[in-house]
Amino acid sequence: MLHTVFVLALVAASGSPDPRPTAPPPRRSTAPRFQPILPPPPDRPHPRPRLRRRPWTNPAASETEPYQTVVIGGLKPAKVLNSPRSVDSLGPRDLVDRAPRSTPDLLSDLPSVVVQRTNHGGGSPFIRGFTGQQILLMLDGVRLNNATTRYGPNQMLNTVDPHMVRRVEVLRGPGSLLYGSDAIGGAVGLWSREPSYVPGARYRWGGSLTSRFSTADRSQVYNAYAWGQAHRLAAGFGGSFKAFHTLVGGRGIGEQRGTGYLEGAWDGALRVSLASRWFLKVASCSVRQYDVPRTDKFTPTDFRFFEKQFRDLAYLQLTGSRGHHLKDLRVTLSFQSHREVRRRYRLADDRIEVASDRVTTAGLAFDGRTDLGRWSNLVWGGDLYLDRVRSDALHESISTGAITSMDAGGFRGQFVDRSTMVQGGVFLYDEIRPLPWLHLHAGGRVAFSHVDIPPDPMADVYTIDTQRIRNTPVGPALGLSLSFIPQTHLRLITSVHQGFRAPNLDDYTRVGSEGVAFDLPTSRLAPEKTTTFEVGAKLAWRWLSASVFGHYTLLRDFIARRYLYDAGGQPVVIDGEPAARRANSARGYLAGVEGFAQVRVAHGFALRAWLSWTRGDLELPLQDPATQPMRRVSPLQGFVAVRWRRANRYWAEVAVRWSARQDRLSPGDLNDTRICPAGPVGCAGTPDFAIINVAAGVRMHRHVNLTFRLENLANEAYKWHGSGVYGPGLSATAELRVRY
Amino acid sequence: MRLMTQWLAVTALALTLGGISAAACDDPNNDVGARCTQAIDCTPPLVCSNRDATDVALGICVYPEALPDAATDAATDAAADAAADADLSSDASGV
């Protein structure tokens, strides 16, 4: 019945079907932009067929293996093994096996990635010690970071429905050359599902229904998706509903107040084949989250909610190729809206503080590549994004309901209303293969950003310039990677890459209490700049695949909070918190090592493990102490898993994820209640932990997938470093997916 | 096989709709911060911040600890309930 309705709708959309039998149309290329398999270089045999012939290969290995295709870090589809960067990829099978509650969950077991959670509705990836403004998030190549992406962790990744994601890619290390501002510590690329399209087919349809239940937060998640193809037109639409309740932590933690919320999401895409290898895609996705509590700021007398977290993205994308000189052209015109309404309930002051921000972003991006012969492959592109911010606030009396507006109350929204930010750049990136054993990747970007902030209505109060603020920093970002290939299965890599982050409106105009300080606006900032040196090796040999990278990042003009002092040398305190402004006041370093190995054993078993360690220090000449650890740097941690898979129908996994204690804390960490709930005195940091998870899945029928997970078998009370909420205790999760 | 697929799809759709309905009716936040004028407006254990005072018209639903008196009352009530339970159990054991 459902099929019939859907087919009728498609038929109506595409015109009357021709009842006469017709000859099949000429075959069209099936090569969508990011579809795998690269032909082997003429001078080098492709190793995969050899592996397939070996008896020790088995399907137990995760899709995160050296032969997965990645786009991130090069813009050209390449195998993880062949990429000169430290990259990872999760494919559709991995995403189904993980049965994630949210999109941040997808990243939680990836090497060197830590997902910090200020609240149950958050989830900010830490990559090589960076997070928030210094990690770029992208969906289908469109930047999700915007002019109000906040200092420190943010919940942006959780505003993407995991059901609409078909592929996740992670770049560790700077990506500013290709992706522009914010990609200092790394970049996360999400690729959404697309309606299935087969060239030459007349009518096809399908879809899926997914249900997920978890005892950890008594959550229920439902998703429905339908797709269809009529001749050259393919379309797909889906939607999710999610209800999360109070999250139960491990031993001694129990129910955690301020963790439940509601969410709805939907997505749709329409793809038209214009000509051979040319496609036009229109896509849209939206998320609505309601009453998401801020768990770390949830005391009985002073608590906060994100009353609304809304994100909408719509884009029009043209992709195609023409000859050797125009390959994989992609032009994307996008529009985004991100709305956030926050409510803070302060019983002692008889007040509810309501703040509302809305950012609308228009974007234009293009990229492609030109094949210049056997030894050179030029990738080029550019982007331009315009953000416009509306910001509002009001106070409401708890006892009388009286409303106080901004004008009457002498306050303003979190940002200066009607502020704008424009940023963009162009880049060139070339892959040169001068010798069979030497590959060189080099390129550069010229970038600019421009902020335009109207006069601050509270300039007198905050003692800043009363004039309109305009600032236009321009700068380059360069990168170079050298890959030495002594053996077919081995890559030795050394690289130098620059990263930058243009200060955004959050840095310039934010006012309010957030975490450990009361932020005040500032009028002049320069971009943060980094230079990262990497040395690494990648190996894919018979039953073993492994990679190891060492990295060292120099930080310049790092934007940090500069605390304010009065004439008597005492800290200025506003609303009970020390006042601070952002300033390019820090420089320092961040260094680390990350290693990954996967051993494929016989009979369908595979062993997978990774380890990462990071350390960073900042020099802040005007603060005491002048040299201090970087904030929220994750401690030594790792992951070990044994996985078994049989005939692509059954699989099971036992995994241990562990983290060492982190007691190397900055002054900011000591004053952060997420890390030191009882205050800085005697704070021992974040305790070490190890959690054991068991998961299994079965494909009961061609159309039915069942995934079952037991999490935290030891019921340990644990918290990722910097998180405001404890992880789930002993709990069970079941996900049922029916495809039709 | 096709019939089975359709049966699975319809069953899953029915379960999905039923689950959504059940989940939507169950507010995950227990109304913390919701407007109230008296205690019965709030889902227990929440209380109204105005404590049903006649001179204060409005309040919000909060946890009892937010109002020291309410917390004391709640603790007293809990102790009384526990004592009553103990009495009942002792009566039962005496039977």
Could you explain how this protein is built, in words?
The complex is a heterodimer of chains A (740) and B (95). Chain A is mainly β and 740 residues long. Chain A is built from 9 helices and 39 strands. In chain A, the strands form 5 sheets. Chain A has a 22-stranded antiparallel barrel. A 5-stranded mixed beta sheet of chain A has the order 3-8-9-6-7. In chain A, a hairpin with a 7-residue loop joins strand 1 and strand 2. Chain A is globular. Chain A starts with a helix and ends with a strand. Mean pLDDT of chain A is 88; it is low at 1-63. Chain B is mainly alpha-helical and 95 residues long. Helices cover 53% and strands 8% of the residues of chain B. Chain B has 2 helices and 3 strands, in the order αβββα. Chain B has helices at 2-24, 68-94, and strands at 35-36, 47-48, 59-62. Chain B has a 3-stranded antiparallel beta sheet with strand order 1-3-2, with no helix packed on it. The N and C termini of chain B lie far apart (62 Å). The A-B interface holds A 1-3, 209, 211, 220, 222, 224, 241, 243-246, 257-258, 260-262, 291, 293, 300-301, 303, 305, 343, 345, 347, 352, 397-401, 701, 703-704, 736, 738, 740 and B 4-6, 8-10, 12-13, 15-16, 19-20, 22-24, 26, 28-29, 32-33, 35, 49-50, 56-60, 62-66.
